[in-house]
Amino acid sequence: MHWQTTRFRIDLSRPRVMGIVNVTPDSFSDGGRHASTAAARAHCERLVEEGADLLDIGGESTRPGATAPDPAEEAARVLPVIEAALRLGVPVSVDTSEPMVMRAALALGVDIVNDVRALRRPGALACVAEHSAAGLCLMHMRGEPNTMQAQADYGDVVAEVGDFLDQRAAEVMAAGVAAERIVLDPGIGFAKRPEHNLALLRRQRELVTRLRRPLLVGWSRKGTLGLLTGRAVHDRLAASVAAALAAVHHGAAIVRVHDVAATVDALKVWQAACGD
Ligand code: HH2
Fold it and tell me: Distance from the CA of 94 to the center of ligand 1, in angstroms?
């Protein structure tokens, strides 16, 4: 299986690590740490040195309760960082739902649009459909970050997340986007309680089998890991690595992580022990 993106056709025969670069003042685990352009650019370089296969650059915190920044502010945060990241030799993704930001990032040559709202903002789908080569990640969420936890009611969360991703991928393909450009994400922590997140992990194979598209999964430092371990957000490295390995073991193609070096090492061992 491959993921077709603007400059790279990513081979997914081995698991890939997407390093997170949050150019935000308020992200849940690293808000403010890479908020300046210089700090974020240095962080991109560091993650590539640590072995990141991809970089995901975002200017909006989507933690529960967050409100979206003004699009011009979001663009000002991410564009200079993307511009520098595009010189590092790995695929670069922009983590945004905002068509104006997508359009500007695509004009710079960004490889992937990662949208936690799955291109549901007006104009987002049209914008991505116009760029026939860029890769896409479509994620499951309900509502908005400031309201989503009130919508965490499911009969069968795995079936309902699968229905959404299946339908959304079909709608995006109907707009002219090739299947090989699309990767899907169950949206760990987005409108979900811990039991939902854990069901999505334990039964992740069902999604992989049903959706027949590569799965990207983000467990890094998230609240369910805090609940399982009793650890605060900055002390969830071991828990995050374990969750990334479990996700890969259950068929994830790409893991989205803050702690790249540790995840890369763990995956090397996992690959030797359990990989093809
Ligand atoms: N999680 C976050 C943000 N973007 N994108 C995808 N595809 N999947 C995810 O699970 C995902 C995502 C939230 O994590 P983080 O970026 O660390 O925090 P914040 O949104 O507070 O910046």
Answer: 11
Residues 95 and 60: beta-carbon distance below 8 Å: yes
Q: How far, in Å, are 32, 44, 220, 233 from residue 39 at the CA level?
A: 10, 9, 21, 21
C-alpha distances (whole Å) from 1 to each of 148, 199, 243 are 33, 25, 23
What is the pTM for the complete model shown? 0.97
| Digit-coded pLDDT (tens) for 8-64 | 999 999 999 999 999 999 988 888 899 999 999 999 999 999 999 999 999 999 988
**Measured in angstroms, how far is the CA atom of residue 62 from the centroid of ligand 1?**
6
CB neighbours of residue 25 within 10 Å = 12
- Going from the Cα of 218 to the center of ligand 1, the distance in angstroms, rounded, reads 7
Catalytic residue numbers read 222, 256
Q: Cα separation of 276 and 165, whole Å?
A: 27
Tokens of 249: 């073991």
pLDDT tens digits, 99-130: 999 999 999 999 999 999 999 999 999 999 99
Mutate which of 47, 56, 63 for ligand 1? The one with the most ligand atoms within 8 Å of its CB, which is 63
Q: Which atom of ligand 1 is least distant from the CA of 27? A: 21
